[in-house]
Amino acid sequence: MKSFKLEILYHKDQRQEIAMELELAVSISDIVIGQEPNVSAKDYLLRWAKRTTHKYPGVNIQDFSKSWRDGLAFSSIIHRNRPDLLDYRQARAQRPRERMETAFFIAEREYGVTRLLDPEDVDTHNPDEKSLITYISSLHEVFPEPPPIHPLFDSAAQQRVQEYREIASALHMWIREKYSLMQDRSFPPTLIEMKKLAAESSRFRTDEIPPRQRDKNYCSQLFKDLEKYFKSIGEIDVEPELHIDNIERNWQRLMVAYQERDRHIMEEIKRLEKLQRLAEKVHREIKQTDANMDTIERTIENESRRIERIHPTEAKKIADAIDQDLVITEQNIQSLKTDVNTLRNGRYPQAGELDKRVHKLHERWVQLRHMLHNKIVGPLANTSYPVEERTVTKHIRTVQETRNVDTNPHFRSLQEHIEWCKNKLKQLKKADYGTDLPSVQTERDIHHREHKQIDQYHSKVEACVKARQYFTGEELALYNQHLGQLQKVYADLLSFSTNRMTDLETLLDFIQSATNELQWLNEKEEIEVTRDWSDTKLDVRGVEKYFEVTVCLFQHLMNDLEQREIQFNSVLERGECLVLQSHPATKAIEAHMAAMNAQWAWLIQLTHCLETHLQNTRHYQQFFSDIHTAEEWLKEKDEVMNNEFSQGEFSLDVGERLLQGMQNLRDELNTFGDQVQALTARAQDIVPLKQRRQPVTRPLTVTAICNYKQNTFVIEKNKECTLTDNSGRTKWRVHNSKGVESQVPGVCFVLPPPDKDALDAADRLRRQYDRSIALWQKKQLRMRQNMIFATIKVVKGWDLPQFIAIGAEQRNAIRKALNEDADKLMAEGDPSDPQLRRLKREMDEVNRLFDEFEKRARAEEESKNKSRLFNTQKSNLLQALDEAERVINQRVLAPLPRDIDTLQHLVLEHKEFESRLQNLEPEIEQLKDTFRSITLKTPQHKKDLECVLDKWKYIWNTSNLYIERLKCIEIVLNGMEDASQVISEFENKLALFDELPSTKKGLEAVHDDLLKLESAVGQQQIVMDQLNDDFDNTRRLTEKSRPTQRGPHSDIERLDKEIQRLNSRWSNVCSQLTDRLRGCQQAYDLLNKYGEAKQIEDDWLDEQYGKLENLQPIKERAKEHLDATRNLLNSVVERTPKIEQVNVNGGKFIREGKIWSKGVQRFREALLEAQPSLDANTAFRSSRTPGQTSGADLVAQELDEFNQRYQYLMDFLYGRLKEIADRCKGDIVTLTGRIHQ
Questions:
Q1: What is the rounded CA–CA span in Å between residue 442 and residue 432?
Q2: Most Cβ neighbours (<10 Å): which of 93, 406, 663, 1098?
């Protein structure tokens, strides 16, 4: 009983250790479990537990300790996901430990959840939090998301709640989307687009509101039906935003926003129509004003040519008439400017262009004013003319005309007809042409009636013609004059009306065609813009068929678009022709053409969007289809493992077949793991389609898949934008790269991958795959247990003859395999498993049986086996040692390496040799152990062992000596390389010295450089001495490693020669340095003596030259100059020894400089001879500049100049004395004697 308790405690401790080891996995699971940002794994797991156990009576989870003590939480988790496995009402009636035991057993049996807890571990005052988190994490992996239907409550009511939630959620999203759209007041600037927006608003009222109204009413009725269910569960089981009251409030708010937006749209349309009519009026008046100025210009030209031929009074009247026309024209231009300002203030798109045209009109008017002044008014300024009587006559005629109008009905009728024609013409000129199809049709119909009336008015004109018979004389002439005016005005009216009728017909035809094209394009646009790509259940094949027929310009859509393009281009060409013909409604035509081109280009962009979205949707559905296929495959394999591989007892043959089948299944699972991994990788590239309809809680980066432009808002393809609101049905609120915000069709964007659902599906598949692997391991463990039991049964049936007949190797293999399999099973399984305890008992009995059989069989074979084993080991070792001895002897006798690379290669080789040799040490020890285990040892056994050990010792001693030799030769080779480099540096430095300088400062610099070299040489001397010592050590070790060799070692002698060569070069450097220092010091001393003496003599010579200049020229009394000249000559002659001493000191310095130069030259020649590879120009490049003279040469030049000055002084004085003697010939004897003195 005591041992059984100890075993329970042992298993309990083992489970606690496993739980502590899994604690690390809990901390790492932040990555896997933490699906929400800024939420830890622990908090997420607690939320999951609360969500799963929600509405279960008696369950209130607040933490991972006391909330789980009663076990109801574990029971509710099992019941929520598998109510068929556990009766919750029955579980509530059980005791806490009983219900926990039931829940733990079901989780382990059905889902393979490792039982890391015992009921007594949980049913305590302070349960271990880490152990609970570990076990609950395992349950989360099995049940990641609770089912939507709660098993404790009415499933039909819950289904209706789910139905309400789905409809209300869709309605809530639609209201949010539409409300955001209704808040948008960024209307397009053109009338055509605004009318399109109005049509969309009308379509929203007639097509979208009614079905959503029905959904709202249905939700209201459904919510009333569910109120009893909500009361029964004690809460309203829907989100607050989906409550019917909230839905109603949002609906009313949407309707108010819609009415407000519709009112703004209609007001904007009226404003744009007013601006459009004003623009057309401005356009007509610009053309009319331009034509009037053409007439004025022609009039000025014509009258300027005939001004000299007509009476001045008539010319003045003509000038006044032209001036009055210009005044009227100026008024028209000012009116046009006012209208253009109105257009500009109203943000009319073509206001700038119209402003430029009005400005040009004004400039032309100024030119006409100047032309009138220069050509007509100027010439008439100085002309005088009498007042004529025609003015009175005209006044009389005007009175007569007025009287006729008042008294004569025919005259009055004629005047009324003239006024009617003028007013009608003015009315037609001001009439509008319309901006869209309804307005153009209205204008056409109105003018059709007007034109019919004008055409019928011809009868009245004819009646006026017939009325001429009632007038005679002056009245007839006046009547004819007015009748001609009527006929002219009526002809103009009829012509203008006919032209306007033609213009309206052509405009209507064009607008009709353009409207048809725009309608066709709008239909295509509406299909693509309103397509819901967030619907993951979209019929991809249907979309692909549509894509082939109506979207892409590359496949079947080509025929439709080509045919439409011909018609489309035909309409555009007609519009261009009308514009070129200066059609009065040019602005409306151009606006429709621009709208057609923009809509066509936009449709082309939408085809690219369709292609991209179709590809993303295809990848999305293919991915989830592959996930579903993979999950079904895993379920199928789980069924196979639960049915086919769950046998309890079987024979060895059947067991082998089952194990092979299990291994094949594992291979399939391993192969399938690659597919799981591939699907996990593919999940990273799945575009989140559902997220397109989910509310954006924070700015999100999206990528544009087409070009888009609206007013100043521009988006380029493949550029990133920031999405701030996607609640609109078709349009999203985004910011482009420049930070500009606008409403853009959502079809233009794709959300960046990955998709959360795809990641969840891949993670779910991974967990299912892991559960299948765990199930396979569990089934394979049971099968291996049963296989071992079958093998144990066979082994227990053996007797001793059968045991011996099997053979020792096969027996050991069977026992080893049996124990290894049993050990693995006990290590992998649960220690509390009864099958494992039985297996342990059975294995103990089998091992005792094997031991007994082995002990009896071993006694006979032990002695023979040991001897055979010793001989085999000895032979193998001797063979290996002989080879090692041969290799080490060969290496010892090999010549010494001559460079570092060869040495490194030898070192590596010997390291490999010692490594192989070291591997033989276990065999040496094994040979010793075998020798000691032999009970009957013979002298030969001992002799063989000593032979092996002696050879082993000799090889290691020789190897160590060889290593020491390699180390020494490495030191020597490195030292030789360093010494050679250093000596070469010293040699190059010595060779760079040139001739001695001629200044003390230069000599001091040379002396300092030589002293620095001497100091460096002194430091290097230690290295040279160490190199010689290292070579002596190398010689000693080499001779010691070759004890059998007699006579000289050629490689040592070769190395000795190289060392001596280096020593010779070193001695040469030292001697050169000593000689250079001594020569430099002597030259310095000589230069000092020479310089001081020469300076004194130079001063003396300067003094004597000064005296020489003070001597008076020899003229008549030459004798008077004799004493002064003779005294000066005597002083010069007495200075001769000092002059000679200066020459002696300078000569010594010159000689020392020559010796220095020859020494440097000899050293360089010797250096070139020793190192032929040196380039003399580079190695001995002098620091002296070209053309610079050496110090010895400079001193020689100075001495030559010095001697020349002295000799010149002597010669000059002797010549002066001779001249004195020549001038005093009577005193020749006396003078000669004095000269000699």
A1: 10
A2: 1098
